[in-house]
């Protein structure tokens, strides 16, 4: 399951960001995962819970925005969802589409930090 290595990289990047900003903890990490990225969101959530143990992300939430696979037909300019497995055939003009426009994303879009509580 490669989701564990992806989760470990997310935890590492978020922990580095927390350290650079002097934050005590990370509250949440937001990621975009495309339908065609080859990543199973539920497996990523589980892996994140494992990877965050013993780090400043111990209680952090992983917020996943799932991005549908989309294509654009070069012949008629129709934009359409390709589904999974992807069907790269234009529903409007019945020709093959060559341009994927969405669904391959795998990126951190935000990291919410918690400040250390003052006594």
UniProtKB/TrEMBL annotation:
The gene is hypA. Ni(2+) binds at residue 2. This is Hydrogenase maturation factor HypA. Zn(2+) binds at residues 73, 76, 90, 93. It holds the Pfam family HypA. GO terms for molecular function: nickel cation binding; zinc ion binding. Keywords: Metal-binding, Nickel, Zinc. Involved in the maturation of [NiFe] hydrogenases. Required for nickel insertion into the metal center of the hydrogenase. It comes from Streptomyces cinnamoneus (Streptoverticillium cinnamoneum). Transmembrane segments: none annotated. It comes from the Bacteria. The keyword Metal-binding applies. Belongs to the HypA/HybF family. One of its GO terms (biological process) is protein maturation.
């Amino acid at each position: 399951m490669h989701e564990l290595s992806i989760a470990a990289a997310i935890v590492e990047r978020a922990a580095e960001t927390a350290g650079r900003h002097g934050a005590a903890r990370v509250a949440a990490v937001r990621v975009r995962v495309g339908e065609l990225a080859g990543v199973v969101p539920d497996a990523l959530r589980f892996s994140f819970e494992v990877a965050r143990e013993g780090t400043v992300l111990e209680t952090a939430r992983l917020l996943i925005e799932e991005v549908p696979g989309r294509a654009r037909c070069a012949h008629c300019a129709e934009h359409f969802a390709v589904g999974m497995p992807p069907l790269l055939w234009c529903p409007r003009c019945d020709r093959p589409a060559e341009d994927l426009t969405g669904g391959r994303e795998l990126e951190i879009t935000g990291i919410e930090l918690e400040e250390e509580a003052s006594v």
